[in-house]
Specification:
Largest sheet: 6 strands, mixed
Strand order of the largest sheet: 6-7-8-3-9-10
Number of helices: 11
Radius of gyration: 24 Å
Helix content: 25-40%
Length: 336
């Protein structure tokens, strides 16, 4: 069941010749209870898109339906109520520095008119949920970046939202802290059933927790689908730039170099292929480049293998590689 449906969304800033078309004809369908990723390089329009989901930015045209409600048709009062179901965390945490952690988490409930005792009880439960019960009386200035983001997550959950929007929520954090925050989001998704939308420029974040992903490029939806499918067969230049940022190519090798680009589509390992080529065929290939990764214990990515000079050996190697499960291969040649 869809919880967010976006159809033919356009967002333009300014008018006339100075107009900036931030989003053009975006169509998106996010399922209830999933962790959905939106990725793109800086300026791709992803933060504008996520702000259109809760109408912090009003689309120039198009439809935004969240939990069955057309957000663009709501009155200001109705929109305030609807936003309780679509909360947000940010790169900069946006905590109230003069309030303790407990008071920060209580804040949305105060605005909603929840009695103080009830708000405090719920806030303590949420701080416990994010692993910070002992920091209830601390101020944000006394916390690490990861702890601040945990408080921000607890605050975002205070209104029992159905959707949690994460706008570059781990960009300011070190890799270890990022991993712990992503693990927390995954845990909250499983425990609470909250739909999580992750906005990021980091492919590693998408790999870690998302089931599906949409790739934005220059305000246009370049590609979307299951994470493993896009890692296996990125079909657009925008996707290839993100999936293989190293650009596995032949450009640094002599003109006329023959090679095969191998795509791993969910097999269990890379190395046995190289070893078995040598053992089974007596053919040795050189690894010219690789951009590979593991998702859920499965291998994805590409590897560039230099083929032997002997045409027969090269043909045998190519045939052997193509016969392997979960592998696709195309011969490539470098032309100066």
């Amino acid at each position: 069941m869809s919880i967010i449906q976006i159809q033919h969304l356009y967002k333009t800033f300014g008018t006339g010749e100075s107009a900036v078309h931030a989003l053009e004809d975006i169509n998106l369908d996010i399922q209830e209870g999933e962790i959905f990723g939106i990725i793109g390089l800086s300026g791709a329009g992803k933060s504008t898109l996520v702000r259109c989901m809760n109408l912090l930015e009003r689309p120039t045209s198009g439809s935004v339906v969240v939990d069955g409600k057309e957000m663009t048709a709501l009155s200001e009062k109705e929109l305030r109520l609807a936003r309780r179901n679509v909360t947000m965390i940010f790169q900069s945490f946006n905590l109230l520095m003069q309030r303790t952690c407990l008071k920060n988490v209580c804040f949305p409930m105060e605005i909603s008119g929840v009695p103080a005792a009830q708000a405090k009880k719920r806030a303590l439960e949420l701080l416990e949920l994010v692993g910070l019960a002992e920091k209830a009386g601390s101020y944000p200035s006394q916390l690490s970046g990861g702890q601040k983001q945990r408080v921000a997550i607890a605050r975002a959950l205070a209104t029992d939202p159905k959707v949690l929007l994460c706008d570059e929520a781990t960009s300011a954090l070190d890799p270890t802290t990022t991993a712990s925050i992503l693990a927390l989001l995954k845990d909250l998704n499983e425990k609470l059933g909250v739909t999580v939308v992750v906005i990021t420029h980091q492919m590693s974040v998408i790999e870690e927790i998302c089931s599906r992903v949409a790739i934005l490029d220059g305000g246009v939806m370049a590609e979307q689908g299951k994470v493993e499918d896009i890692f296996s067969h990125p079909s657009t230049d925008a996707a290839r730039r993100l999936v293989y940022p190293g650009g596995v190519s032949l450009e640094q090798y002599p003109s006329g170099t023959r090679a095969v680009r191998v795509a791993f589509n969910g097999g269990t390992a890379y190395q046995p292929l190289i070893a078995s080529l040598a053992i089974d065929l007596g053919v040795k290939v050189n690894i010219l480049g690789a951009d590979t990764r593991e998702i859920d214990g499965k291998a994805f990515g590409t590897m560039l293998l230099g083929l032997p000079d002997d045409p027969n050996d090269a043909a045998k190697a190519l045939s052997y590689i193509r016969a392997q499960p979960n592998v696709s291969a195309e011969e490539v040649a470098y032309h100066a």
